[in-house]
Write a structure and sequence with these properties.
The protein has helices at 7-25, 28-42, 47-58, 125-136, 229-236, and strands at 104-110, 113-119, 145-149, 153-156, 188-191, 204-207, 221-227, 254-261. It is of the alpha+beta class.
């Protein structure tokens, strides 16, 4: 990223660069495409930049993973009180298990504190249903925020090996793109996807700063952080400066997500 003449220019340039990188970083293959494209377009990185990228890409992944994938089961609506056993793989997308006219609050307990997400099914019924379904099956328990980009986003939602191999809970759902600007202000919670439409699955991200406003409306918005934004700031602080890959410096683990209907 070229130097700017003023702090304001540097800030704008940094947010724009992070947003562009995030579009590639949201899918595992996109990271590789981005690096190769950058190298081809510039005639190769400088020695310092090449060394920096080598350090980032070979650094041990800071995340939680499972060694083996369990057998997939047919999806059935989980118990509303959260008493359903943990389940990680399903044969297909879930049935509609929520009341689309209701409002739901997700209480997310993490190793850095607790924050709340107010979910809006009227805005994205498929997306909210997907998140509630997985949360009530304890899908996210023990999963870390595996990608954190400064002033842009913190991403979580893959209990297996984030960024490597197939993601999600064994199925995908259609996107429900936002229509009202700004699409992704700070505190927005959206579902991640790969480059192709129809690839939304279990991963989600929380917009951590102004850089989110530069993202295109490609990602389903399921709600907003309405309590505990300081926890989001603490997660954002684990991002490494000038890092377009997004491996955090420290792990933040989701301990549990509790869903309540209001």
């Amino acid at each position: 990223m070229a130097d700017a003449d003023t702090d304001a220019d540097r800030s704008t340039s940094s947010r724009a660069g992070c947003a562009r990188s995030a579009l590639l970083a949201l899918g595992a293959l996109l990271i590789v495409v981005y690096i190769l494209t950058q190298a081809a377009g510039s005639g190769g990185d400088s020695d310092d930049e090449a060394a920096r990228r080598s350090t980032i890409t070979t650094r041990p992944r800071v995340t939680t993973t499972l060694v083996e994938r369990p057998d997939a089961v047919e999806p059935e609506c989980p118990e509303e009180d959260g008493s359903s056993p943990k389940q990680l793989l399903f044969t297909e997308a879930p049935p509609m298990c929520i009341d689309v006219d209701a409002t739901y609050v997700a209480t997310v307990a993490t190793s850095r504190g607790t924050f709340e997400i107010t979910l809006d099914p009227s805005r994205a019924p498929l997306g909210v249903n997907n998140f509630v379904f997985l949360a009530r099956y304890h899908f996210y328990d023990g999963v870390s925020f595996h990608r954190v980009l400064d002033d842009l986003l913190a991403q979580a939602g893959d209990p297996f090996d984030p960024g490597v191999g197939p993601t999600g809970a064994g199925y995908t759902i259609a996107e429900e793109p936002p229509t009202a600007e700004p699409y992704y202000p700070k505190g927005t919670v959206a579902l991640a996807r790969e480059t192709e439409p129809g690839t939304t699955a279990s991963e989600f991200f929380v917009v951590t700063g102004e850089g989110g406003e530069l993202l295109p409306p490609d990602y389903t918005v399921i709600g907003s952080v309405t309590s505990g934004i300081e926890v989001i700031d603490a997660i954002d602080a684990t991002a490494l400066p000038n890092d377009d890959i997004g491996f955090p410096s420290e792990m933040t683990v989701i301990e549990s997500i509790t869903i309540e209907e209001e």
